[in-house]
Design a protein that fits this description.
globular
Length: about 325
């Protein structure tokens, strides 16, 4: 059983020879559109599935005009299909998938609100995006519609032109300190659901990964996302909480998320987590305990979010080796 077969079997609930492993991280060096570096990382870690980060495309390509005013938001227009903002994403996914045909490759797509936030690209972006949204909600909605159109173009071309297995949908901005649950469901849930529906129209729902992002370390109003149309889910076991205050670990996730979901989780990605700080025995023992507690069916071992860029490759490989040892 090769890696791609292993991952797809886990997603569809079929038998696996061992639990598959997936990671994702950021690549700041844009040489070769990050393709060579990502393929090297994929090989060195032994992972089964790589989720491609969108470094270089995370910020909407606005040329020399920052989209930090309502006027700039209103002036936004969708990119042409052959613009590098579109073409570069297809090039990256296509060449990585071709370079590792026996591996499962997924491609990350952010929600439109998240893309506006990332495009501000400054230390105040978390605060500034809320100020910009509240200053002119109509202008902000126009910007999100433009980004949504670009996202749909990218996703359609990914399906038509690459051999990736599905879309990695990154849900963000549902932190408890950002929107009330009611405001989030009114303002952002419709955009989330359209993105999810588009992904599910292109690939089997099982193949699309719904990443419930908590990269700031703040728990989300995750009950909102828990109701979405997913079958493979990635969340922060070290951050997200049940109503009684307990963390939603992998074992707890079996009961919390929709019945039959494939769980993609297990490791705190932060510098304080065992994935970053542990030795070989600690990481392997921790890995085996996750598998024993949650069961190996419909499970993909993964981190809460992007692993630290300086995490040693052997730390990630030890997780794969532990899964192999357990069988």
């Amino acid at each position: 059983m090769n890696s791609k077969e292993r991952v797809l079997n886990a997603m569809y609930g079929k038998e696996v020879d061992r639990v598959p492993v997936s990671w994702y991280t950021h690549f700041s060096d844009q040489t070769d559109n990050t393709v060579a570096d990502q393929l090297t990382w994929l090989k060195n870690t032994g992972m089964d599935m790589l989720c491609i980060e969108t470094d270089g495309f995370m910020q909407w390509d606005c040329g020399n005009t920052p989209i930090n005013t309502p006027e700039a938001l209103r002036a936004m227009r969708p990119h042409k299909k052959d613009d590098w903002y579109i073409e570069g994403q297809i090039d990256r996914a296509k060449r990585i998938a071709e370079g590792a045909p026996d591996k499962a490759i997924s491609y990350m797509i952010f929600t439109p609100f998240g893309t506006v936030k990332h495009s501000l690209n400054n230390p105040r972006q978390e605060e500034e995006v809320m100020e910009l949204y509240r200053a002119d909600k109509e202008a902000f909605a126009h910007a999100m519609a433009v980004i949504e159109e670009d996202n749909f173009t990218v996703m359609e071309r990914l399906k038509a032109e690459t051999d990736i297995v599905g879309i990695f949908v990154s849900l963000q901005n549902c932190e408890r300190d950002r929107f009330s649950p009611e405001e989030y469901e009114e303002v952002l849930t419709p955009w989330d659901k359209r993105l999810i529906a588009k992904a599910n129209s292109l690939y089997d729902t099982e193949r699309n990964i719904y990443h419930m992002c908590s990269w700031r370390g703040v728990p989300n109003n995750i009950d909102i996302w828990q109701k979405y149309d997913y079958k493979t889910v990635n969340w922060a076991v070290a951050i997200e909480e049940l109503k009684d205050g307990r963390k939603i670990g992998v074992k707890e996730g079996r009961d919390y998320f929709k019945a039959g979901s494939t769980l993609m989780a297990g490791f705190d990605n932060r510098p304080c987590g065992i994935l970053y700080t542990g030795n070989e025995k600690e990481i392997k023992d921790y890995t085996k305990e996750i598998i024993r507690s949650a069961g190996k069916e419909k499970l993909i071992l993964c981190s809460d979010c992007s692993v630290q860029k300086d995490t040693p490759d052997e730390h990630l490989r030890w997780v794969v080796e532990a899964a192999e040892e357990l069988g």
